[in-house]
Amino acid sequence: MLNVRIRAIFLVLSMAIFAGLPLVSHSAEAQAPSVLKQLDEAFVQVAEKVTPAVVNIRSSKKEAASGVPGELDPFFKHPFRDFDDLFKRFKKGPKPEGFKQEGLGSGVIISSDGHILTNSHVVKDADEIQVNLSDRRSFTAKVIGTDSESDIAVIKIDAKDLPIAKLGDSSKLRVGELVMAIGNPFGLNRTVTSGIVSATGRTNVGIIDYEDFIQTDAAINPGNSGGPLVNISGEVIGINTAIATRSGGYQGIGFAIPSNSANLIMEDLLKDGKVRRGLLGVNIQDMNESLAKSFGRTDTKGALVAQVVEGSPAEKAGIKPEDIILKFNGQDVSGAAELKNLVGRQKPGATSKLTVWRNGKTVDFSIEIGERTAKALGTPVPPAAGETFEELGLEIERVPAAAAEKMGLKEGQGVLVKDVKGDGLGSRMGLRSGDVILEVDGKNISSPSDFSDGVKKAREHKVIRLKIQRGTAKIFVASPIG
């Protein structure tokens, strides 16, 4: 509680400063203790209200025998890690037959008959799941459904009249709001920490497929995974999922899945045991200033269509590469991640409306949403492993027949990037060896001389845009050019 009181004092002083109140006046001295007590009591009441609905989850999975010794599954593989990695402990020496890998996480009870919301990575593929309640009772849980793309799971224990937590409306969340994280960090049951909402709508973190994270500075650590992030009213507004860390512990940056997103996934899991998501059938990317300028745009909003899948809903509706999707069902699209989330929430078969920027004009399209499946997505093929362009730092050549066949290209389509110099413009644009340059500023190229002509014309406009193919994926890159 000392940490809470320190934060409260800081909050009151900050409020006084912003309000222009004299910090040493007799009225302020009289009011401050009352304000502090009210805030202190609010935190206490939230903790007392939500903590009984928070559970400790232990999962175990049998591993095959191995002669490789190990002590701890490495926690730091990426600065953004899910909390329970640190608890995947391994016995010293070779693994015996039937060795169990164990994980530790948290969850929150959302129905009095035993449904529990948690993270998919806490329980997925587990052979046994043990749930410990606040009253020290222990139950074996079964998995109702998991969704790795959102990292949400629902499990069930055979119990009645359990305390539950209420899900709040995360769309109303504002940066700066007070929040509390409750869970089992390092196995310390039902630990409560406090902080604020640092940001909302965090995407491109690289943790899961569908990202729209709440960022918080509430202290959360390995073992908090799946536990609730709650507001000052005691409503669950997020499910704690990952931390940014270089030490394996708290560094002031944590991420939670918004409650509204978790609730939608939970409803599908409870109903069908799985999640069905919408699909357009396009490869999209974010805009940057250079790309926007090359398409005649003055801002970087929207999602750029780099590729349209053959036979997809997008192709049938008339969507083309180089279209910029500005709105989806009337809602502005800020970037590729937001469009992906909006489409993913649609049910397959639903009809949606797209507003697209094409050739300097906006055009509306109606599209019947498809279903996101592994077959529909396909599997990108890694790129296969001339003439030198010193300014761009590129060495290019005609695409060899074997590489063209592997990448699904027609004969004479594009030029192959054979080498990229580390300090050239091509490197700064993100080009790699093995990329195939298909277009320069919207014009097809089939030889190094075509590419040279395209670069010369691009200099006249002071910006160059390339359409490239990397494996089977097509993307755009752009940059100013002198």
Automatic annotation (TrEMBL):
Swiss-Prot/TrEMBL keywords: Hydrolase, Periplasm, Protease, Repeat, Serine protease, Signal
Keyword Hydrolase: yes
Active site: 121 (charge relay system), 151 (charge relay system), 225 (charge relay system)
Domain PDZ intervals: 269-360, 393-447
Name of protein: Periplasmic serine protease, Do/DeqQ family
Taxonomic lineage of the native organism: Bacteria, Pseudomonadati, Thermodesulfobacteriota, Desulfomonilia, Desulfomonilales
Subcellular location: Periplasm
Record-annotated membrane-spanning stretches: none
Pfam (any one): PDZ_2
Family, as annotated: Belongs to the peptidase S1C family.
First and last residue of the signal peptide: 1-30
Listed GO CC annotations: periplasmic space
GO MF annotations in UniProt: serine-type endopeptidase activity
Classification via Gene3D superfamilies: 2.30.42.10, 2.40.10.120
PROSITE patterns per record: PDZ
Domain of life: Bacteria
GO terms classed as biological process: proteolysis
Residues the record lists as binding substrate: 121, 151, 223-225
